[in-house]
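Milestone M4 deliverable, item 7.
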Amino acid sequence: SFPPASLTKMMTVAITFREIKEGRLTLDRQFRISEHAWRTGGAPSHTSAMFAPINSDATIGDLLQGVMVQSANDGAIALAEGIAGSEAGFAEKMNARAKELGMEATSFANPTGLPDPGNRTTARDLVRLASHLITDHPDHYKIYAQPEFTYNKIRQLNRNPLLKSFPGADGIKTGFIKESGYNLVGSAVQNGQR
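Output delivered:
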């Protein structure tokens, strides 16, 4: 197993998708960008961010685009705090969902994938998660193929290099931390086959 880095955000997105599907959230509902989300995952963190201003409100639709297109850590923390009250509370939901999806070698400690010894996964488990996103949430999954997203007047391109270089690619997620290096979960459709 290895640290999933930003691939962790696939589970953050999966839980948010389920909240929407089951009617507890809507794309236009707003969550506050807490000082913690801003400091840990926003501009001051010097990590991937959507640069949401501290104590501002962002719609869930924008937070999802920030997380899925820009790998925004501030967006991921805002989703976690909005859904579960805290990163730790959200990590419990992530681990429960991982078990339900049969991701037996996976554990999550936070919604971002920022370095924590509690973040572990395997390629096999990530394929299960990817398959769940594609199959159970096809409408929202499409955001992964969005070429860019502008938030707070800052335009950022999608971090997934496959979207430009691999025919039929429509996702999913890239990651990088020192501990595990670069990683990517990719998906594409060619000749009707994924």
